[in-house]
Amino acid sequence: MMIRTSHKLLLAAALLASTALPAFAGQAQGQIQDQVAADQIAAPVLHATVNVTGDIVRVGDLIDNAGAAAQVAVYRAPDLGTTGLLPTAQVIAALRSHQVIGVDTRNIKEVAVTRLARTVDAKEVELAVAKAVEHRSGLGDAANITVNFDQPVQDLKFNAASTGALAPSAVRVDPRNGHFDVTFDIGEGVTAGTTKLRFTGTAIETVEVAVLTRNIDRSDVLRTGDVVIERRPKAELGGGEPISRVAAIGMQTRRPLRAGQALKTLDLARPDLVQRDQDVTIVFQTAGIYLTTRGKALDTGSEGDTVSVLNIQSKRTVSGRVVGRGQVAVEIAMPRAAQTAEAETGGPVTVASRLPNSATAKAE
């Protein structure tokens, strides 16, 4: 009896062990998976450089894997467009105060925090003012307007979210001297609202003109080195029409001009190719005939002008057209050959009825 009972107890224990083993194995496997999952949670890692767009630096800006503390504010951001340096020890202490521990510093000694910003430089402001005042009070296109500010314009910093243009909200221009007073609105993002900027100064319309490099006497012909191109205030022309450098070269001055003077079309004329009292060559031209003789000019003229000249040989005065330096062309009108009425109509020719008495008949 006792032996049988022992066998039954052993069998029951074996059955119990066989049923408990899978349950224990499953529980152990679950614990191992949880431990692996815990081990897989990455440790916080510190950043060496941090860029922020707002005025607050948060935990999530400073480290990776910040978890629930990512949105916690820890520092005030530096000024727009500037960078501040934070010692690593100070950053770690600030993170610990917010229950962020175990940060991998990667041997970083300090953290550089930069506040991003939109920069509007002086050139952009100048272009915006020129655009705002163009076609006002007699001014022309913005591309031809030079802007001089009453106070120097420094580079302007705005929130990085600001993308709008400088929009003029108030523009005043004095037509007497071009003095302007312009106010711009610039949006700094949805939350930051709008900023107003005011600028004052003088707007001057300029033109591209030919400018003399030396003093020029009356009737001098301009050469390549005598003229350069510059931008000058339009008022310097006194209402005259500017002339290009290409058009000015080879032209003759109507009056004495000084170095640095902007040239107008009225200052110049085509060069005189014939001077009064100058010895010239008279060229007689007609169909198939080309004759030349010496003459003396009685007028001054440029190419294409009609002048009077004295024919030295015939002592007659004729008019001709200036065709070159010291040359005057005179066209000759050739009369048509006269024709008799009989020739025109083909009439009969009259023959004498008898020879004179003195004539002797010629033998055939």
Q: How would you portray this structure in words?
A:
This protein is an alpha+beta fold and 364 residues long. It folds into 3 domains: 45-115, no CATH class; 119-269, Antifreeze-like/N-acetylneuraminic acid synthase C-terminal domain (Type Iii Antifreeze Protein Isoform Hplc 12, Alpha-Beta Complex); 272-331, SH3 type barrels. Helix content is 20%, strand content 35%. It contains 6 helices and 23 strands. It has helices spanning 2-40, 59-62, 88-96, 122-133, 245-248, 341-345, and strands spanning 45-46, 49-52, 56-58, 63-64, 73-76, 83-87, 110-115, 117-120, 145-149, 156-159, 167-173, 179-187, 194-212, 227-233, 252-253, 268-269, 272-274, 279-286, 289-297, 301-302, 306-311, 317-324, 327-331. The strands form 8 sheets. Strands 9, 11, 12, 13 and 14 form a 5-stranded antiparallel β-sheet that branches. It has a 5-stranded mixed beta barrel with strand order 18-19-21-22-23. The longest helix is centred in the first third of the chain and has 39 residues, at 2-40. The radius of gyration is 52 Å and the shape is rod-shaped. The N and C termini lie far apart (198 Å). Residues 1-21, 35-39 and 338-364 have low confidence and may be disordered.
For the record, what is the CATH homologous superfamily label of the largest domain? Antifreeze-like/N-acetylneuraminic acid synthase C-terminal domain
CATH topology of the largest domain: Type Iii Antifreeze Protein Isoform Hplc 12
CA-CA gap between termini: 198 Å
Helix-and-strand structural type: alpha+beta
The number of distinct structural domains comes to 3
Give the class-level CATH name of the largest domain: Alpha Beta
How large, in whole angstroms, is the Cα Rg?
52 Å
Based on the coordinates given, report the CATH architecture of the largest domain: Alpha-Beta Complex
**Content of β-strand:** 25-35%
Largest sheet: 5 strands, antiparallel
Number of helices: 6
Q: What is the percent of helical residues?
A: 10-25%
Number of strands: 23
Topology as a string of helices (H) and strands (E) = HEEEHEEEHEEHEEEEEEHEEEEEEEEEH
